[in-house]
């Protein structure tokens, strides 16, 4: 039956392969479209299955059928270890570790007719190839498979399985489908309904098996729909039983249930051959990635614009892709037309054709539309219905016009005609002066000029006059100075010309040059000319007065200018005319007018029309602005067109204008005559009428006229508007009475203003309601209608009404009243009535009750409230000292306001005061407590308000606090220990902290509990005892050198510290410190060597080696350099001596039983620190000397540069050397600035060096302080912690300081770089004239660079010093990893024992599981003789497989052997490390290392023995032996491999590796912290740089340096 099932699956798989062969791509090898299919997959994998029944709800017991026996178990749906939920149906299935879904048992009524349903939702349509169910129990007697072909569709039967097909499903068990029958019919079979096998039975359903059209699947829509499913339903209808359920035995009923271990569905995502994959959208919906221009979740339709043929499923012969519609590019939408497809073979009918096209493919134009070519857009003909004979036009869009009509669309009349109609077009009748062209062809309306109106453009618009043909606007706008829009041409003016022909003299014309300089013109008969002032100033011809002034009558007229010359070529081509007024000036360039006929003398005439519309005006003006210009023309200038060679002369200037006159002069129609509104007079409304004035006094004729406002007290001037007031009135409109008079001057009568009755004849006012006269200008401090009383804030009796007359005096309230308030004091006595700020008294001179302070103070809060605390005050809370504000406190209460308890007291109570703190002197660290709660400050591990008991989890109440119990949480019943620190252990746990398993117990990896050893423990006990004996010998060996009991000494207490680890740690710390000091001193010696080389370079650059140093400055500079060089040499020798001393120092290793030698070591450290300080101080002095040398060098250079001999020499040069002298001056200024910045930087560096030296002194003093407190290990630990913290802080400060100064030096160098380049550039220029000066400048640059290099090197030495201190900090941080390794060695034997025993137990269980199947197979082989040959073949095949497995095991063993060799190599490396350690430690350390070497050699021998055992096993495996030996050898191999793996997987090695990982992580964390510190330092550095940049100039300047 299993072989039949396998054949069924192979058939389904082969059919699916035939369908999908080569179909994973939508393009074939030739690049053509082809059918493509998604991958074949298990569609049910990891899908959620809905089950109508599952065991464990409620929890229940069930039994498994295993032949004649049953094994019972428990199912609980809420327990992850005991549930059998539906998630096990579609997860990854493994026969070795099967998982299964399980229903409730028959005990709960699960049996026919009650069905159990399993529903699988696939997410979209799939094409199903097979459905496979693997049952964990026996297969059901009856069950059925149903499907849905679409979402939400009905359930359709797929297949029935039943031993009673007819009875249960009404189907024939032997039925089949004949050709021609409905192939979607579900069949029933009894093949898979037997009760055997009891477990592991398979049921596989192939959807195409037995279907006649299966081999023609592509042409069978029925089968295509048959294999399509979106959901599957497994209906389990009847259980298979042995019939023993009849007796209702609960155990029997609990053994019958449904259980399925795997539910798989083979198929493909349905895409109809148009997609190669399915993807999940963001919404979670599974859809096909459609190709072939298809669309839909299953690619079941064509895309919207691919409708040229009907959609079809892709086949092996054709992709049946959807084709693009042919719409000539005129639309994006089409539909499929079956009739069109049958008739033309192209079924895409285009819809909504654009561009006015029509047809199935948008291939032609619509009616009454046209286009020139098929690629063009169809345009409407738009033929006129009146003017055209047909609405359809030609292909070029031209219409057929009627007679007398023109235009492409026959919509226009011919030019000069209008009003198209049945009778044709009528002729136009436009006025030639007012029209701008021919009339409109529609209605005959003539196009009028701007200021012209009328149908024929024959009249001016209102507000304009003088219709003229030469006026671009037709009529001129009325001007009338802006006061009227009604005007007409004047009949009282005639045209005149203002002319200068220069017949007798220059006629008042002059020449003008820049700056208003005037010169006379040169005259000769009929012409004048002007000689230029210079090449750049050729001047203007300036007109006389008759061309200036009010020239409004010339508006719109021509200004004509004529120039003559000897020949036509010499005449000017451009002339500039300038018109100026008081506040505006315009200019225009003129070109010569063409001459209509030849003239005798060469002449060019330039004309300008005085109108704002002339396009050449610069700037352009409005009409009003241009007339303002002509109204007060102050200058008319003509450019000197004669030029530099005087080639032409001004011969005539004519300006058209008008004058009041009559015939016989011709009229001047451009002059207006205005109709003025009321208030204006004159021909142009230029004057105000009598009784009117200018709105703006003296504003001129452009300002509006308004009526005079003198209130009948005089007349006004028409231009200024000033009134001539009478009757004691005054004001611009005579609206006020004179000072000393009162009345209403606005009434307009003569007696309006009368004299005031006030003293000293001051001003007054009359109250309108009562008519009372009130004085308005009383003397200061007086008020009243007659100034008879004192004002607010004053007191006295000015008129003596209450006795002797007293002047009004200001009240004295000491500033404690509101100066703006009314009635602040008595106006007779001066007593203050409204004291503020909590003051009181006749003069507000002291504070009120309940306030304190100084009422006479001028601050804001003079008197403040007492604010006494009612709980701590003895007496009224508003009572306090009037000056200090001190409240009167109860006992043990303090504070100005009696608000808190004294130190050692708490619980401030009202009326009682404070209670004394009740702190336990042993458990508390201070007698003081919390001032409110009374909580004392407890030692670590102590609790209670009085610090009188240990916290939970602590023990040992003492003056140092309580110690932590540290009970193991897994092995302890409670985390609280006994008084001696021992914990209460759970069953199976032992040890002080309950962290070990008892004998014959082991720690489970699953539960981390100590569990009893199983029965099988006896099988490996002998081997474990052997290993235990070897471990005991190893333990004895280690016991002699254990860190917990050296030389037989035991711990005094359970929590005591070990002596040897601390001593070893201190010894290694001293060793590493010595190496760090040697390294840092080596770096300092290298830096000193570098400084010495730089100083020698400076000396060589200055030629100090010459014996004839006759020059004073060179001798002084060389002496300044020689001193630092000698000091650096001395420091270098001292550093070498220090390195030699540290290298030869021998540090003994001893563990003191009594007082130790820490004092000696600290003294040595102090000596080293002192030498370090001296070296740093020496380096600092060297740097200072280098800076002094640099300053001296700069001073010498400045002295040389200040020598004025070069300057005297330069003064004697020619004028060409003036520029070089200026360059020298600039160079001097830049050098001075550079020198000032360098000195400021040097001064800052010196200050920083002093700070660093101070920090080193503090460090040394801290070290001395620590040496005095090194009497015990505990004190040493505290001192070491303090030293570490101090080193951390000072290292950070030094690092920040050094980096900030390094950045400052770099910044100074960057700022000096451009100045240096500028100096070099100027020196190269000067070198052309003075070679000796150039050489001196080069020496200056070299010396300056050397000095800067010295400064940089000095900063480098400072940086290295700070780096040395940082390395000391790194040495301190390395101690924790060493401590962890030491503790790991102590715990080695316990971890090894637990590891070996645990692995041995697991291997034993695995061996039992391996042996059991072999035993069953052997029994089955003996009882079944008929299958002997078959079993022999099977055994032979298994032997071959076993051999291949053995070979694999051999390879694994070889790899393991390689790993063993690697471990051995590592052990040898450790051995070499131990040898190296032996040479560096004392005799006691040699003993410890020797013991460790013996342990390593023992482990090595053990590994070698295991390797030999592996070799023997491999030699046995390579031989040809019986099948029984194979199993035994494999078991032995597995056992030895387990032992070897246990040996290799040493807990000690794991601990060491873990310690290395932890150390690496700590280092990474430290590096991250260093990076963060660096980032903070950089941020602070940037802040300091900003502060330095924004400091005042005086804060950073050094000594003054003279300028060259």
In total, how many beta strands?
76
CATH topology of the domain at 42-270: Jelly Rolls
Alpha-carbon distance between the two ends: 117 Å
Q: Which spans have pLDDT < 50 for at least 5 consecutive residues?
A: 1-23, 1041-1064, 1149-1156, 1200-1210, 1259-1284, 1388-1393, 1410-1415, 1417-1426, 1478-1486, 1516-1523, 1594-1604
Count of DSSP H/I helices: 21
- Sum up the overall morphology in one term: extended
Structural class: alpha+beta
Tell me the CATH architecture of the domain at 42-270.
Sandwich
Oligomeric category: single chain
By CATH, the superfamily of the domain at 42-270 comes out as: Galactose-binding domain-like
Strand content: 15-25%
**How confident overall, as mean pLDDT?**
76
CATH class of the domain at 42-270: Mainly Beta
**Could you estimate the helical fraction of the residues in percent?**
25-40%
**Biggest β-sheet: count, sense, barrel?**
10 strands, mixed
Q: Return Rg in Å.
A: 60 Å
Q: Your description of this structure?
A:
The chain is α+β, with helices and mostly antiparallel strands and 1604 residues long. 35% of the residues lie in helices and 19% in strands. A hairpin with a 2-residue loop joins strand 3 and strand 4 (69-75). The radius of gyration is 60 Å and the shape is extended. The N terminus and C terminus are likely disordered. It comes from Aldrovandia affinis.
Outline of this structure?
Residues 1-21 form the signal peptide. With 1604 residues, this protein is an alpha+beta fold. Among the domains are: 42-270, Galactose-binding domain-like (Jelly Rolls), CATH 2.60.120; 381-427, Laminin; 497-657, Jelly Rolls; 779-836, Laminin (Ribbon); 848-916, Beta Complex (Tie2 ligand-binding domain fold), CATH 2.170.300; 1388-1545.
């Amino acid at each position: 039956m299993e072989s039949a099932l396998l054949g069924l699956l192979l058939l389904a798989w082969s059919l699916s392969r035939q369908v999908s062969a080569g179909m994973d791509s939508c393009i074939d090898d030739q690049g053509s479209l082809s059918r493509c299919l998604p991958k074949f997959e298990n569609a049910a994998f990891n899908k959620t299955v809905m089950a109508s029944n599952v065991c464990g709800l409620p929890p229940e017991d069930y039994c498994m059928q295993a032949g004649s026996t049953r094994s019972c178990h428990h199912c609980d749906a809420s327990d992850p270890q005991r549930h059998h939920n539906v998630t096990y149906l579609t997860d990854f299935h493994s026969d070795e570790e099967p998982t299964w879904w399980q229903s409730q048992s028959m005990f709960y009524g699960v049996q026919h007719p009650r069905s159990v349903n399993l529903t699988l939702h696939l997410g979209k349509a799939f094409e199903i190839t097979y459905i496979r169910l693997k049952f964990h129990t026996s297969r059901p007697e009856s069950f059925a498979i149903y499907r849905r072909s679409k979402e939400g569709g009905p359930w359709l039967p797929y297949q029935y399985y039943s031993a009673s097909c007819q009875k249960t499903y009404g189907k024939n068990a032997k039925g089949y489908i004949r050709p021609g029958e409905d192939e979607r019919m579900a069949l029933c079979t009894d093949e898979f309904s037997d009760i055997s096998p009891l477990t592991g039975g398979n049921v596989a359903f192939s959807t195409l098996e037995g279907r006649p059209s299966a081999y023609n699947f592509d042409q069978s829509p029925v089968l295509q729909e048959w294999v399509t499913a979106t959901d599957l339903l497994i209906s389990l209808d009847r259980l298979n039983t042995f019939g023993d359920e009849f007796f209702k035995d609960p155990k029997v009923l609990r053994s019958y249930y449904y259980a399925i271990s795997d539910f798989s569905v083979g198929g493909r995502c349905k895409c109809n051959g148009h997609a190669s994959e399915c993807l999940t959208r963001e919404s979670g919906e599974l859809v096909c990635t459609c190709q072939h221009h298809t669309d839909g979740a299953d690619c079941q339709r064509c895309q919207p614009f691919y409708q040229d043929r009907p959609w079809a499923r892709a086949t092996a012969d054709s992709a049946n892709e959807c084709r693009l519609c042919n719409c000539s590019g005129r639309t994006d939408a089409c539909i499929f037309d079956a009739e069109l497809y049958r008739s033309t073979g192209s079924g895409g009918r285009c819809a909504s054709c654009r561009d006015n096209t029509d047809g199935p493919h948008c291939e032609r134009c619509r009616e009454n539309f046209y286009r020139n070519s098929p690629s063009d857009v169809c345009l409407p003909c738009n033929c006129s219905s009146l003017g055209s004979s047909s609405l359809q036009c030609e292909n070029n869009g031209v219409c057929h016009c009627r007679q007398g009509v023109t235009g492409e669309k026959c919509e226009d009349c011919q030019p000069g005609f209008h009003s198209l109609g049945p009778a044709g077009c009528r002729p136009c009748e436009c006025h030639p002066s007012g029209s701008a062209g021919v009339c409109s062809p529609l209605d005959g309306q003539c196009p009028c000029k701007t200021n012209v109106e009328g149908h024929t453009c024959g009249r001016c618009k209102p507000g304009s006059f003088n219709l003229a043909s030469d006026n671009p606007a037709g009529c001129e706008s009325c001007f009338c100075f802006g006061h009227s829009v009604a005007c007409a041409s004047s009949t009282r003016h005639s045209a005149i010309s203002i002319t200068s022909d220069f017949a007798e003299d220059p006629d008042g014309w002059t020449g003008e040059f820049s700056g208003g300089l005037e010169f006379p013109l040169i005259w000769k008969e009929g012409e004048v000319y002007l000689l230029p002032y210079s090449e750049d100033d050729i001047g203007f011809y300036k007109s006389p007065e008759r061309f200036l002034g009010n020239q409004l009558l010339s508006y719109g007229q021509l200004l004509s200018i004529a120039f003559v010359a000897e020949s036509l070529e010499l005449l000017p081509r451009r002339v500039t005319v300038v018109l100026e007024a008081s506040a505006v000036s315009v200019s225009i360039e003129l070109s010569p007018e063409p001459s209509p006929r030849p003239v005798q003398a060469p002449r060019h005439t330039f004309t300008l029309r005085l109108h704002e519309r002339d396009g050449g005006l610069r700037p352009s003006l409005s009409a009003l602005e241009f007339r303002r210009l002509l109204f007060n023309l102050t200058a008319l200038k003509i450019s000197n067109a004669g030029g530099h060679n005087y080639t032409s002369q001004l011969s005539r200037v004519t300006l058209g204008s008008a004058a009041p006159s009559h015939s016989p002069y011709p009229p001047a129609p451009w002059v207006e005559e205005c109709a003025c509104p009321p208030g204006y007079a004159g021909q142009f409304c230029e004057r105000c009428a009598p009784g009117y004035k200018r709105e703006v006094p003296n504003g001129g004729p452009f300002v509006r006229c308004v009526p005079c406002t003198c209130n009948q007290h005089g007349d006004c001037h028409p231009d200024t508007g000033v009134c001539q007031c009478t009757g004691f009135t005054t004001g611009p409109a005579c609206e006020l009475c004179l000072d000393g008079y009162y009345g209403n001057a606005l009434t307009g009568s003569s007696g309006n203003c009368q004299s005031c009755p006030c003293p000293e004849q001051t001003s007054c006012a009359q109250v309108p309601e009562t008519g009372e006269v009130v004085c308005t200008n009383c003397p200061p401090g007086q008020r009243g209608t007659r100034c008879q009383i004192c004002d607010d804030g004053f007191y006295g009796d000015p008129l003596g009404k209450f006795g002797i007359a007293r002047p009004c005096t200001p009240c004295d309230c000491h500033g404690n009243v509101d100066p703006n308030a009314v009635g602040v004091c008595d106006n007779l006595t001066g007593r203050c009535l409204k004291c503020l700020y909590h003051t009181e008294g006749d003069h507000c001179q002291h504070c009120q009750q309940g306030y304190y302070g100084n009422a006479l103070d001028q601050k804001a809060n003079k008197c403040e409230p007492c604010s006494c605390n009612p709980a701590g005050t003895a007496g009224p809370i508003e009572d306090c000292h009037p000056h200090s504000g001190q409240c009167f406190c109860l006992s043990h209460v303090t504070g100005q306001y009696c608000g808190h308890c004294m130190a050692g007291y708490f619980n401030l109570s009202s009326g009682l005061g404070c209670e004394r703190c009740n702190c336990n002197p042993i458990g508390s660290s201070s007698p003081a407590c919390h001032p409110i709660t009374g909580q004392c400050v407890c030692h670590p591990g102590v609790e209670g308000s009085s610090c009188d008991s240990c916290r939970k989890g602590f023990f040992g109440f003492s003056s140092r606090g309580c110690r932590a119990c540290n009970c193991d949480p897994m092995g302890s019943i409670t985390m609280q220990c006994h008084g001696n620190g021992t914990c209460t252990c759970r069953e199976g746990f032992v040890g002080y902290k309950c962290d070990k398993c008892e004998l014959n117990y082991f720690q489970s990896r699953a539960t981390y509990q100590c569990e009893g050893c199983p029965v099988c423990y006896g099988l490996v006990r002998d081997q474990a005892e052997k290993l235990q004996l070897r471990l005991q010998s190893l333990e004895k060996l280690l016991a002699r050198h254990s860190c917990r009991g050296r030389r037989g000494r035991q711990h005094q207490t359970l929590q005591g510290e070990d002596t040897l680890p601390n001593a070893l740690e201190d010894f290694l710390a001293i060793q590493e410190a010595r190496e760090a000091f040697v390294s840092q001193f080596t770096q300092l010696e290298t830096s000193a060597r570098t400084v010495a080389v730089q100083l020698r370079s400076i000396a060589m650059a200055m030629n100090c080696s010459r014996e004839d140093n006759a020059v004073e400055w060179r001798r002084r500079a060389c002496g300044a350099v020689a001193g630092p060089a000698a000091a650096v040499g001395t420091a270098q020798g001292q550093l070498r001596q220090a390195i030699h001393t540290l290298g030869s120092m021998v540090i003994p290793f001893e563990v003191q039983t009594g007082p130790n030698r820490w004092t000696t070591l600290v003294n040595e450290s102090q000596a080293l620190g002192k030498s370090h300080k001296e070296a740093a101080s020496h380096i600092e002095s060297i740097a200072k000397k280098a800076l002094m040398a640099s300053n001296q060098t700069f001073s010498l250079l400045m002295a040389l540069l200040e020598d004025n001999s070069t300057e005297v020499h330069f003064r004697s040069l020619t004028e060409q050397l003036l520029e070089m002298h200026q360059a020298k001056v600039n160079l001097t200024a830049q050098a001075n600035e550079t020198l000032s910045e360098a000195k400021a930087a040097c001064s800052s560096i010196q200050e920083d060096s002093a700070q660093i030296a101070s920090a080193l002194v503090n460090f040394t003093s801290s070290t001395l302080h620590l040496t005095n407190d090194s009497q015990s290990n505990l004190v040493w630990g505290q001192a070491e912690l303090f030293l570490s913290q101090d080193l951390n802080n000072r290292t950070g400060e030094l690092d920040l300081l050094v980096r900030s100064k390094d950045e400052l030096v770099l910044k100074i160098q960057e700022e000096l770089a451009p100045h240096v380049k500028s100096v070099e550039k100027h020196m190269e220029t000067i070198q052309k004239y003075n070679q000796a000066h150039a050489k001196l400048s080069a020496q200056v640059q070299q010396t300056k660079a050397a000095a800067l290099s010295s400064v940089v090197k000095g900063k480098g030495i400072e940086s290295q010093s700070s780096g040395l201190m940082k390395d000391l900090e790194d040495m301190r941080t390395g101690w924790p990893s060493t401590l962890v390794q030491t503790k790991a060695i102590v715990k080695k034997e316990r971890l090894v024992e637990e590891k070996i025993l645990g692995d041995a137990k697991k291997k034993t269980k695995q061996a039992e599981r391996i042996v059991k199947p072999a035993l069953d197979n052997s029994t089955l082989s003996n009882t079944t003789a008929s299958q002997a040959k078959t079993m022999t073949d099977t055994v032979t095949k298994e032997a071959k497989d076993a051999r291949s497995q053995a070979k694999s095991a051999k390879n694994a063993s070889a790899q393991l052997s390689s790993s063993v060799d690697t471990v051995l190599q590592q052990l040898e490396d450790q051995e070499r490390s131990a040898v190296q350690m032996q040479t560096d430690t004392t005799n006691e350390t040699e003993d410890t290392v020797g013991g460790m070497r013996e342990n390593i050699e023992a482990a090595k021998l053990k590994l070698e023995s295991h390797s030999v055992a592996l070799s023997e096993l491999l030699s046995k495996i390579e031989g040809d032996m019986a099948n029984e030996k194979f199993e035994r050898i494999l078991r032995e191999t597995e056992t030895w491999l387990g032992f070897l793996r246990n040996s290799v997987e040493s807990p000690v090695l794991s601990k060491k590796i873990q310690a290395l990982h932890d150390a690496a992580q700590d280092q990474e964390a430290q590096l991250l912290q260093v990076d963060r510190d660096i980032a903070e330092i950089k941020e602070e550095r940037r802040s300091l740089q900003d502060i330095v940049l924004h400091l005042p100039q005086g804060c950073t300047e050094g000594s003054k340096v003279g300028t060259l």
